[in-house]
Amino acid sequence: MDVPLLELRNICKRFGDTRALCDVSLTLQSGRNLALVGENGAGKSTLMKILSGVYQPDSGSILLDGQAVRLRDPRDARQRGISIIHQEFSLVPHLDVTDNLFLGREPTNRIGMSCRSAMRRQAQRVLDRLGATFSIDSIVARLGIAQQQFVEIAKALLGETRVLIMDEPTATLTVAETRRLLSIMRELVQQGVSIIFISHHLEEVFDVADDVLCLRDGARVGFGHSAELSQDELIRMMVGRDLNTTFPPAKAQIQGGVVLDVHALQRKSHLPTVSFQLRAGEILGLAGLVGSGRSKMVHALVGADRATQRELSLNQQRLSIRTTADARTAGIGLIPEDRKRQGLVLDASIRDNMVLASLKRLCHPVLRLIRRRAVVRATNQQAEQLRIKAASLSQLARALSGGNQQKIVLAKWLLADCQVLILDEPTRGIDIGAKGEIYQLLRELRNRGVAILLISSELPEVIGMSDRLMVMRNQRIEHTFESRLDINEEAVMNYAAGVPSA
Amino acid sequence: MPREFQVLKALRARVPRLLDNPSVLAFAGLVLLCLAMSFVSDRFATWENLQNVMRQVSINAIIAAGMTVVILAGGIDLSVGAVMALSMTLTAAALLAEIPIPLAIAIGLATGAACGAVNGLLIAYGRLPAIIVTLAMMEIPRGLALLKTGGYPQSGLPSEFSWIGQGNLVGLQTPIVVMLVVFAVLYALLTYFPVGRYIYGIGGNEEAVRLSGVRVERTKLLAYTISGMTAAIAGIVLASRLMSGQPNAGVGFELDAIAAVVLGGTAIVGGRGSMIGTLIGALTLGVLNNGLNFMSVSPYTQKVLKGAIILLAIYAGSVKRKL
């Protein structure tokens, strides 16, 4: 057998009291595609960071072409042919594609001037190799997320990358973009590049990966060829138990009255006016393609963004919302799409984050002082209910894994006692175990009479969870399925894409 | 396992966590500095001298207290020196017009609050960058103070007014008491009231706080108004110490205040830090000044040393954060 391209032997890494990785080994042959799976907090990101030179392992060795190496920093790793593409891109938005590709390694002529024509030539070649259709002169900020990801991949390829590491590359892509990316990954592997990618989408894993490595609680719990594994086996490996991945059954519909009646909501004067009704004890799904205006619509609804027209009533009473504070007072909470940028104050404690929307309620009625003990009691109770895994609630929110971070944002609004809960992609980037818990929780809230508006780009999710379903396209509500029975994946896709149905 | 060993282990686990708090680090620095100074000069560690140090830092510390609130909320206030001068001259002018002392003080405070509110309105509601707005507001109040006085100090204030800057209260010099009260009030505001949590939150992630249904604009307006008011308080204390209103006072005070805030471990980008840290920071600057004077180091050298120490403190803080 050949000497493997990359080999990790018995890697261990601790952060303070936490064991992040323990005795993890892996082998990667050249031209193979390895998927790294596991629940949030299983140690996937730590492993990636060790591979790309961000962290140093406490013990264990890294072998490249059979030679032990020490990856001092990301630059060192890159020079040895290991590149990483993080979930947050490291592109300079206001420079064009060519400049971004060559940033820090511009080819220069004898007197040190950068050699624009050579750069452009090479840039074009690598974009052609990826089959990208945008121009090398495009300003990166004007490109879509999928295209920006192409730029990241192109950047890695330019540096003679042999091992390409991708951290949840499809998390923010649409279905079509994902398909495109996966085919490029396949092609790169054929060209001899080895890929390691993290994914929560098991279909993707089975689609493109040759091998699968599964981590749980920092330890390697499984390794195998994807062709020899079944989806159920893999899930069992990841969570360490059998898991019912289907959506919790919908109980008999509680026919609640209309809680939130959106008569007319218009974001900008040239955009269409949206109207819909949300009833007590229902989950109203909102499907649509990325860019169809779902997130912007709900942001305008709760007063986070401007709206030219916002006629609402709550429980048959006219409701005026001008700021998010008005929405909160009315009992309308929005759990935004981007946890880190919109949901959490990462450098504040878990507890401070949890009470951010309900501090007023936890104050002394006259003195308006925060009642510390009430805060501690409420947050402890909520954390236990949601099974938030943290050493202590005074830890920074930054320290938690994605699933637990999402639970904090949820906890924030549960503590605020909302009667209307709007969730924007609540399970994005979250492992299967946490996903199931969130589905269960949404169902419980619905059965308690909370009105829920659920935005999701994952069709099975939004179809499986919703009592009624709206589909948005081009800033307008294209269709509303009034009964669960009418909803099917194809019909939803047709409305979302604007294909006239037969 | 022997018990002593367990205790030791528990201690070892706790010590790094204690050091996680930047004010603890700043306090350790201050204690070390004081120890060093008392070795250098036996005049340093006397009650009289320590009280003098505290009185000397009181003006800067009061301004820095308000500055802490603004910086924690992710902003900056460069206008404090000019606001101080305007409040000071208007209070003095009021006193010279034989307006009763409490009313004259109220005029000074209102002036500071109004200047701060202008900053806050433009920054929070007008969405202009704080550094530009407060840079412009370095000029306007200063100009108004000069216009009002023609550029001359206004002396001849009533002698009862001197109590604030030169008197004693509960066994301490009054400016020290004023300083401690300002810190206590703002500490309580940041710690025990929801708005305090919001201020930290806004400095950490404004968008997340807004989406949590918090009135971010109003909170920022409050932060700048507080900073204007603390500048005014400092101005009134200084007017009483000098027994005159000086339109040219307070040049460069904004930088001293920022230095105290940052030395105290507050992150310049906001979200992390504390009132206590700022008090420690201001005291550190004062002790340094005082000790170097005892050592008869020239003021020029003192400037170099002061700058170096600020850099060193920030560097120590950033190294620790990365560990």
Describe what this molecule looks like in 3D.
The complex is a heterodimer of chains A (502) and B (323). By secondary structure, chain A is of the alpha/beta class. Chain A has helices at 44-51, 74-79, 97-102, 116-130, 145-158, 175-190, 202-208, 231-239, 294-301, 324-329, 339-343, 350-354, 372-385, 402-415, 432-447, 459-465, 489-497, and strands at 6-15, 18-28, 33-37, 59-64, 67-69, 82-85, 163-167, 194-198, 211-216, 219-225, 258-266, 274-279, 283-288, 309-314, 317-319, 332-335, 420-424, 451-455, 468-473, 476-481. In chain A, the strands form 4 sheets. A 6-stranded mixed sheet of chain A has the order 6-7-8-3-9-10, with helices on both faces. Chain A has a 6-stranded mixed sheet with strand order 16-17-18-13-19-20, sandwiched between helices. In chain A, helix 4 packs across helix 5 (145-158) and helix 13 crosses helix 14. Chain B is mostly helical and 323 residues long. In chain B, the strands form 2 sheets. A two-stranded antiparallel sheet of chain B has the order 1-4. A two-stranded antiparallel sheet of chain B has the order 2-3. In chain B, a hairpin with a 2-residue loop joins strand 2 and strand 3. Classes of the chains: A alpha/beta (502), B mainly alpha (323).
